[in-house]
Amino acid sequence: MEDKGSLSSLLRVAGLVHDLGNPPFGHFGEEAIKQFFQDYFSENKTTSLNDLEKSDFKYFDGNVQTLRILSKLYYFGDEFGYNLTFSSLASVVKYPSNSMDGNKNPSTEIAKKKFGYFVTETEIYKRISDYLKLNNKRSPIVYLMEAADDIAYSAADIEDGVKLGIVTIDEIREIFKENLDKNKDIVLKKIDDLKVEFSKDKQICQSIIIQKFRIETQRVMIQEVINTFEQNYDAVMTGNLQKELIDISDAKDIRKSYKKLQSFVFNEKFILKKEIAGWEAITGLLKIFVTASNSENFKKDGNNYQARLYNIIAAAHRKVYEVEQYHNPEYKKLQLIVDFISGMTDSYAIHLFQELKGIKL
User: Fold this and answer.
1) Average pLDDT of span 309-337
2) Which of 117, 234, 251, 298 could disulfide-link 221, Cβ–Cβ 3.0 to 4.6 Å?
3) Looking at residue 72, what DSSP letter applies?
């Protein structure tokens, strides 16, 4: 009984930290980083990086960056970053493979769908896996964290879509009607009942309807994930379950409906314009810093262009770069740049790019 309550505490930690490594502009930012390095290594035939090292950048992933942030990037006087427990660190490793063994999407083995650690964190992950006896498989916590993430964020954008006038209640109902299967009757009845209940107050009805609808659909998803967890307990605990809990639950049609709705919302022009601007900023910053890193002047001391760019990088990242032990200096420099850029906010990335290009001072 001494560990009673520990699971919920661990899940709270996992929920708080699992997206820390996401770059500016989220998944679109990830794509920008991946595309930049795919082009870069295609054109740069003289690189000293081996295939595994190149793969880390060509398949960059915010979840992988999260492990690096938690275990190393925030330097507080030792090499252990935030000094979190192995269980907490394991909770963010969704795909426990390196970047060459992983990225087998589609794959019959969930651990290899993407990847979970860079070459510089290989030893850290080995220690986590050995201590927790994971056998290079998912921690059981990951299944629960992924389900919670899907339930929370799949529904989060729906309210913004309504408030911004991108989508109406009737359009939402139609999307759900087209994509629901097992839960069609109960979900459509809920939205119809809410429309009737709040039809009198035209000013707030849309907002209240969508909030109550979101809460109800999340309630169904939570209960069905609990049921699925119980039914697949042994496979979850051994890391042998090869699907996400929500995807094999009786609420998978609700999740599918929300995904369709997300694509509807995210295709709004003003969102697309922001993402394109973000792509230009990220790839532009990468080009500036990576080009400079090819010079021997890319270091702390010096009165030249490359040294100035080096010193723009956050001091905490430069400290880790200077003390971290890894045998390939070119890989280290590229990782320093990615650490810096992927840690930016959307607005800071655009602002810094404009400053460095002389667009805005």
Assistant:
1) 94
2) 251
3) I
Distance CA 88, CA 10 (A): 6
- The number of CA neighbours under 13 Å toward the Cβ of 56 is 20
How far is 83 from 292, CA to CA, in rounded Å?
A: 33
* DSSP-derived secondary structure for 148-215: HHHHHHHHHHHHHHHHTTSS-HHHHHHHHHHH-STTHHHHHHHHHHHHHHTSS-TTTHHHHHHHHHHH
Half-sphere exposure at residue 326, Cβ-oriented, CA atoms within 13 angstroms = 21
The pLDDT of residue 203 is: 58
Torsion angle, alpha carbons of 345, 350, 354, 359, to 10: -140
| Three-class secondary structure of residue 218 per DSSP | helix
Residue 350 CA to residue 361 CA, distance in Å, equals 12
Gyration radius of the chain's alpha carbons: 23
CA gap 142, 22 in Å, rounded: 17
pLDDT for the residue 158: 82
* DSSP H/E element including 256: helix 252-266
Q: How many residues does the chain have?
A: 361
Quick: pLDDT tens for 15-72.
999 999 999 999 999 999 999 999 999 998 889 999 999 999 999 999 999 999 999 8
> Is the preceding peptide bond at 96 cis, omega within 30 degrees of 0?
no
Is the Cβ–Cβ distance between 86 and 37 less than 8 Å? no
